[in-house]
Write a structure and sequence with these properties.
The complex is a heterotrimer. Chain A contains eleven helices and 13 strands. Chain A is α/β, with parallel strands linked by helices. In chain A, strand 5 and strand 6 form a beta hairpin. The radius of gyration of chain A is 22 Å and the shape is globular. Chain A starts with a strand and ends in a 14-residue tail after the last strand. Chain B has a single domain, classed as MetI-like fold (Orthogonal Bundle). Helix content of chain B is about 70%, strand content about 0%. Chain B has ten helices and no strands. Helices cover about 40% and strands about 20% of the residues of chain C. By secondary structure, chain C is an alpha/beta fold. Chain C contains nine helices and ten strands. The chains are: A alpha/beta, B mainly alpha, C alpha/beta. Chains in contact: A-C, B-C. Chains A and C meet through helix 8, helix 9 and helix 11 of A and helix 5, helix 6, helix 7 and helix 9 of C.
């Protein structure tokens, strides 16, 4: 069943008197029980999509979409109360830096027990409720793999190591038993051991609780270990979408190929200390977005036709938007 | 040397230009700045354009109301006081004394305070901590009280009052500068400068001072408003400027005696003080938000 | 004779006078290794194993308690700041505070020249323009300020500041951590090109094992302040010996293995 369905989402904002499209016809779907990764560099608009889904966009943004639904209900026409209810119960978000997201002045126990919704707490009198909250908190911490729960709960955020803090953030996100977890670059800056623990936790949660995960990142190695599907975003345009293995083995869009090339681990036959294949130029700023396909100025295969935005084409669940994709040669013939 | 502008459509301002641009956005700040400029001009040129000397007593025109009253005369635009001295001239002189005195006190406090604060920020250890926290306790006491105490020791008079207020304002500059310098020294770009071989003094002048000037200016403008009020207060209490000097606080205290028959003797100096302090606060506030917005871009 | 030779380097932070009891502070060392011209060594290890501290000791930001560092056979001491500053330079991790926001790029690059060389004003600007070109920036960037540059360009400025004194060794602390993948590839290529052209030796500290494997000739694994293992990169990644190395390499491989 499709949980989240976004089609042709466009986000515009006025900058210096001109309307700029920060997101240009971006599309994304999330099905039940799958892990989808949203890959994009800075300026690609991935944080904007997360904000649009959670309804946290400031009012200056103009939001238009062909379709933006949650379980069939239209998110754009929903009123705020319903939207908030969805955000509280069904969707949970985990952010980048757990130290910044946790309250530095209260212990972890207080923060966790405070956020447990009323419905899950048993008991009628306040001491019963307190005991029930503690039990729920402890079981959550066990589920995310924190072994020494008493130690963690009694301490403050800055006294605990990074991996425990991030696992705690995930526990906080799971408190309302959501159906979807949106993880906005949760493993940024982590070393390999910690990263592996967090990622295997995500995989575990996905398998045992059928939790769908939207993993937003640009760390391809992290994504490769657990994602089912991948959506690639460049400068607000979705350039490729499909099952991860198929996109990795045979990327259609030049940008996806450049991304895959940027992780030397994906090309085992690469000669050590040889130059990596990289796209020249830099990511354009909002003020200087190219017309048509936004990769145009940097793309090695770009031709005159690329000033028109390419349409979305599909081969076997693998969608791409390119006039001269990798599986065709320069003239557009196989 | 190659030409600068590669992108003609992009204007790359220096930090000062972008601060000015942000500042201009607030209309209130611009109004405040204009008023402040008027006062600055008056403080410098005022005495040259006054029609009368401030202590010239015109016995034939005692307690004359301002010119827009029925009894007033154009010769004395803002009226006269109980001794027949022209209010307009007295106020112009008063602005010079009060404003000038305040600026002098603040400059004194600024130079000494920032030097000490910078040294305190660059050194570390138990001794410097003790010094800083002792000075911090002085910030709790209102500057006016400290000034009164110092004047009580040194004796009354305008110059003593300015010195006293200057001394009372030093702790806040030391505090602000020390915090800023300490924070800056922890930053990576200072570490690289050190690795290049720069000594602490070189680092201070080349790297930290340009960043610090913004902070100093904002603190300085707000300190001037405090200093104006303190000088006027000391003058009012006859602890600062004495009766002979045309100082705004002194004028208010003299005008109290004839408050009911000649209210303009109090209102007009009071209004000048009010406008000076208001314009400085508005400008200081505007500067602070402009600097903050510039940094966040 | 090696370019850089680290011999029995030890570091122990000074204990404050009020701390009594057993000594449980972090010890580094003894650490010994050597670096040849044109070689790249990466230092990997879990958090707080002493990698950043070792980098600081090599560059001169901290003074070692014992041991010595030899550059071309000559011992480097902290008194000879100029000699060290010109030959062993550091590129810090990219952060919001890596560059001074109120200085222009030209001023930032001129500072090391003023402090360490006797070039005239003309000579200095020529050197700055040459270095800007070397790292792939334009001459116009001389007048730019920090906020006008993107992350990748700021990283290049940091690199230019390291290169401007023509060093022989560059120590880089997590140079790729904060960069996007495409910018990272460009920076990797730039560093490889510079190494070929100028014969630089690099010491990298990184968490990104994929890049480490691609870029370094030898890898050092640090654990608890000691060198746990040091070997040729390819050998280390295929067959780690020490427990700490095994943990890291296995975790890395686990991430890469297909589902």
């Amino acid at each position: 069943m499709i949980l989240l369905d976004i089609k042709n989402l466009t986000l515009e904002i006025e900058s210096n008197g001109v309307l700029v499209k920060a997101l240009d016809k971006a599309s994304l779907t999330l099905e039940e029980g799958e892990i989808r990764s949203l890959v994009g560099e800075s300026g690609s608009g991935k944080s904007l999509i997360v904000k649009a889904i959670s309804g946290a966009l400031p009012p200056r943004w103009i939001v238009t979409a062909d379709r933006m639904t949650w379980r069939g209900q239209n998110l754009l026409t929903m009123n705020r109360a319903e939207r908030r209810k969805i955000m509280r119960r069904d969707i949970a978000v985990v952010f980048q830096d757990p130290m910044a997201a946790l309250d530095p002045s209260s212990t972890l126990k207080e923060q966790l027990t405070e956020s447990i919704p009323e419905e899950f707490v048993e008991g009628r009198w306040f001491w019963q409720k307190r005991r029930s909250r503690l039990d729920i908190a402890r079981s959550l911490l066990h589920k995310v793999g924190i072994k020494d729960t008493q130690y963690c709960m009694d301490h403050y955020a800055h006294e605990l190591p990074l991996d425990i803090c991030q696992k705690f953030m995930i526990a906080m996100a799971l408190v309302s038993q959501p159906t979807v977890l949106i993880a906005d670059d949760p493993t940024r800056g982590m070393e390999t051991n910690t990263k592996r623990q967090i990622l295997s936790l995500f995989k575990n949660l996905n398998k045992t609780r059928n939790l769908s995960i939207l993993f937003v990142s640009h760390d391809l190695v992290a994504i490769s270990s657990m994602a089912d599907k991948i959506t690639v975003l460049y400068c607000g345009q979705t350039v490729e979408d499909g099952p991860f293995q198929s996109v990795r083995k045979k990327p259609f869009h030049p940008y996806t190929k450049a991304l895959m090339d940027s992780a030397p681990s994906f090309s085992p036959d690469l000669q050590p200390k040889s130059a990596l294949i990289a796209l020249g130029g830099t990511i354009p700023t909002l003020q200087h977005l190219p017309i048509g396909c936004r990769l145009g100025p940097r793309c090695p295969r770009a031709q005159k036709k690329c000033v028109e935005t390419p349409v979305s084409r599909k081969i076997n669940q693998h969608t791409y938007r390119c006039h001269f994709p990798m599986h065709l040669d320069d003239k557009g013939i196989i | 040397m190659p030409d600068v502008n590669l992108y003609d459509d992009e204007f790359h301002p220096t930090p000062w230009q972008s601060t000015w641009r942000e500042f201009k956005q607030s209309h209130i700040a611009l109004v405040g700045l204009t008023t402040l400029m008027v006062f600055v001009v008056l403080a410098i040129l005022g005495p040259l354009i006054t029609p009368y000397a401030p202590d010239l007593q015109n016995t034939s025109a005692l307690i004359l109301p301002p010119a827009w009253h029925d009894n007033g005369s154009v010769l004395h635009l803002l009226g006269t006081d109980v001794l027949g001295r022209d209010m307009l001239s007295r106020i112009f002189y008063g602005i010079q004394v009060t404003f000038g005195g305040a600026v002098g006190a603040v400059l004194f406090a600024l130079i000494i305070g920032t030097t000490f604060g910078a040294i305190a920020g660059m050194t570390s250890g138990v001794r410097s901590s003790i010094l800083n926290h002792v000075l911090d306790t002085f910030m709790v006491i209102p500057s006016l009280l400290i000034a009164i105490i110092i004047v009580a020791i040194l004796g009354v008079g305008l110059s003593n009052a300015v010195l006293a207020i200057g001394l009372a304002l030093i702790p806040r500059f030391v505090h602000g500068t020390r915090n800023f310098v300490k924070e800056e020294f922890g930053k990576d770009y200072i570490k690289t400068a050190r690795l290049d071989g720069a000594s602490s003094i070189q680092i201070y002048f080349k790297n930290i001072l340009p960043n610090m000037i913004d902070v100093i200016i904002v603190q300085g403008t707000l300190a001037i408003s405090v200093a104006i009020l303190d000088i006027a207060a000391l003058g009012f209490l006859n602890l600062g400027a004495q009766t002979l000097l045309p100082e705004l606080g002194v004028m208010i205290s003299e005008g109290l005696a004839t408050a009911y028959i000649a209210p303009w003797n109090i209102l007009l100096p009071g209004l000048s003080i009010f406008l000076m302090v208001l314009s400085i606060n508005v400008v200081g506030d505007g500067l602070r938000s402009a600097l903050r917005n510039r940094m966040s871009q | 004779m090696s370019l850089l030779s680290i011999e029995q380097l030890c570091y122990q932070p000074k204990r404050p006078w009020y701390k009594l009891g057993a000594d449980d502070t972090f010890h580094l060392g003894p650490v010994s290794f050597s670096l040849e011209k044109g070689e790249t060594i990466s230092i990997i290890g879990e958090n707080s194993c002493g990698k950043s501290l070792l980098a600081k000791l090599i560059v001169g930001a901290e003074t070692p308690t014992s041991g010595r560092i030899l550059l071309n056979g000559q011992p480097l001491e902290n008194n000879h700041k100029k000699q060290r500053a010109s030959n062993v330079r550091m590129v810090f991790r990219h952060s919001a505070h890596a560059l001074n926001p109120s200085l222009s790029i030209g001023q930032m690059l001129e500072e090391p020249l003023l402090l360490n060389t006797a070039l005239s004003a003309q000579g200095r600007s020529e050197k700055i323009f040459k270095t800007l070109k070397l790292v792939g920036l334009m001459a116009d960037h001389f007048y730019f300020y920090k906020h006008m540059l993107s992350d990748g360009q700021q990283q290049r400025v940091a690199l230019a500041r390291a290169l401007i004194l023509d060093p022989q060794v560059i120590v880089a602390d997590e140079p790729f951590a904060a960069l996007d993948p495409s910018v990272r590839s460009q920076t990797v290529n730039l560093l490889l090109k510079l190494q070929k052209e100028l014969g630089l030796a690099f010491i990298f500290i990184s968490h990104n094992l994929g890049i480490v494997r691609h870029m370094s000739d030898r890898t050092i694994v640090m654990h608890d302040g000691q060198i746990a293992e040091m070997n040729l990169t390819q050998t280390l990644f295929l067959d780690p010996q020490h427990n700490a190395s095994k943990q890291l390499i296995h975790a890395h491989n686990a991430l890469l293995s297909l589902q």
